Amino acid sequence: MATGRTHRPATRSRGIPEATVARLPLYLRALTALSERSVPTVSSEELAAAAGVNSAKLRKDFSYLGSYGTRGVGYDVEYLVYQISRELGLTQDWPVVIVGIGNLGAALANYGGFASRGFRVAALIDADPAMAGTPVAGIPVQHADELERIVSDNGVSIGVISTPAGAAQQVCDRLVAAGVTSILNFAPTVLSVPDGVDVRKVDLSIELQILAFHEQRKAGEDTSENAPDPAAPPVRSASAGRKGPDGDMPAVMPA
Amino acid sequence: MATGRTHRPATRSRGIPEATVARLPLYLRALTALSERSVPTVSSEELAAAAGVNSAKLRKDFSYLGSYGTRGVGYDVEYLVYQISRELGLTQDWPVVIVGIGNLGAALANYGGFASRGFRVAALIDADPAMAGTPVAGIPVQHADELERIVSDNGVSIGVISTPAGAAQQVCDRLVAAGVTSILNFAPTVLSVPDGVDVRKVDLSIELQILAFHEQRKAGEDTSENAPDPAAPPVRSASAGRKGPDGDMPAVMPA
DNA sequence: CGCTGTGAAAGACTTCACAGCA
DNA sequence: TGCTGTGAAGTCTTTCACAGCG
Q: Which residues touch strand C (CB under 7 A)?
């Protein structure tokens, strides 16, 4: 999940459900692989397996785009690649800027998946003057002072933020003021943006925490639930009645 | 969106919905920030704003964990931090290995959000012998030959894959064979794993593609739109024969 | 016959709105 | 009084299952 909070009905997208949109890139990746192997057609079953979803879902997804398959046969790979690309807006060129060229920013600059999907890294921006001029992934890093000019000169509408959390909101504000209307945020902070600006976020530690949750379940499957008594009891109730299910460290859960 | 769930009704987690689990880290982050500022209590309204969700959703989410709030007052910050940490399994230590120490792997190794959440980078592994011994983020990189031993010696149950796509499945298989049961995959490929192993994926370019989709919609808001009406596909029915490296597809470029 | 496309049913998630407790 | 906790309603998503076409 990632869309920021541009409180919009969220389903304005010409009838295509968000859940479907989120899967289109997956299908596209699988189709591109097939295309490179010169496979002419695929069935929903095969493509679904390659994309990691089930076939009913895939067919339903495609039905929102139109009827691009052939009954009894399957889908024409090249044709579908084109249709999905067009639907996603990848048939046009999207200049993007990456702000914050630390380890992560450098990784993003080097990431091949961008260029091959219609995204062009128009500029790398960092606040550290010492980095100015240094090329990363063949692109010279420019100083943050140039941000507004760069965005405007290149007609950038998508910005990537990979700065430390503390700088993210400020960078975001400047990007938006300069004309950016879509932001991909890697900083572990909630960005607030005006209406009409989309934010998606990727938080590396969140994914790991979700895994830990499930991992924990596996460990103590049917035993009496969380027994592990680690350290540091919470407590420190600030006001009068904080009344947990029982005192401080519940060993049982309320139903 | 990220999960690569193994076929399961998904309703295994002792009643806590997946959607709620995915938000717990968000709440935890916001609460940690409040805790650092020594704020004793928060209302659902305030916390929801800090986490970027709405308050009804937050209260509903917390209701799955138990009744940890105080009517008329709000939630005790420290107590909630503890309860959520425990629910997520972050009160225990999770050794993780990162396989593939390129730009991204290095960024992950340096990412502070791990250590502060109970995750400990037990080892960095790369297939390039030249990297062996070189420290990244203060941790020496070890050769891939050591993978099985490392996982086993450290009791690693969570693995992070940041290798190129081509190596991911193989690395995954080895991790799983060595005992890893949760995998965070950054490689742009679908991993297949046996039942009982969880995979979550993060694909940097997918997020960008979703943004492009919405960005494209903004461009043609009032102005006629592409007019892909629900029933009529854009043209060019896919008759047989379509193939060849790069064909004649774009005969109908819109916009 | 095989596979797509899709109504209809089931299920998951979100939002509403208010009872009830501190 | 003020805010939590939660049934109930509403919305979105997935799955089923089969009609219909090549």
A: A 42-45, 55-56, 59-60, 62-63, 67-75, 240-241, 243; B 9-11, 17-20, 54, 56-57, 59-60, 70-73
* Residue B241 predicted with pLDDT over 80: no
pLDDT over 80 (residue B155): yes
Q: Which residues of chain A does B106 touch, with a Cβ-Cβ cutoff of 8 Å?
A: 103, 107
Lay out the sheet containing A119-126: strands in order across. Answer: A135-136, A139-143, A119-126, A94-99, A158-161, A182-185, A198-201
B96 in contact with A, Cβ within 8 Å: yes
Phi and psi at residue B20, in whole multiples of 5°?
A: -70, -45
Residue predicted with more confidence, A244 or B38? B38
Q: Does the distance separating the beta carbons of B206 and A26 come in below 8 Å?
A: yes
CB contact at 8 A, B156 and B128: no
Q: Do B208 and A1 touch (CB under 8 A)?
A: no
Interface check B38 vs A, CB under 8 A: no
> For residue A132, is pLDDT > 90?
yes
Nearest residue of A to residue B82 by CA position? A234
Contact B109, B137 (CB under 8 A): yes
pLDDT over 90 at A10, yes or no: no
Would you call A21 an interface residue with chain B, using a CB distance cutoff of 8 Å?
yes
Tell whether B106 is within 8 A of chain A (Cβ): yes
User: How far B146 CA sits from the closest chain A CA (Å)?
Assistant: 23
**Structural domains of chain A in order of their starting residue, each with its CATH number:** 18-88 (1.10.10.10), 94-207 (3.40.50.720)
Interchain pair A213, B77: CB under 8 A = no
- Rounded Cα gap, residues A72 and A53, in angstroms: 21
User: Per-residue pLDDT tens for A15-56?
Assistant: 899 999 999 999 999 999 999 999 999 999 999 999 999 999
Tell me if B233 and A68 make a contact (CB, 8 A cut-off): yes
pTM of the shown model = 0.86
Give tens-digit pLDDT for B101-125: 999 999 999 998 898 899 999 999 9
Q: Nearest Cα to A167, choosing from A140, A188, A145, A152?
A: A188
- Residue B219: per-residue pLDDT: 80
Residues B6, B193: Cα–Cα separation, whole Å: 8
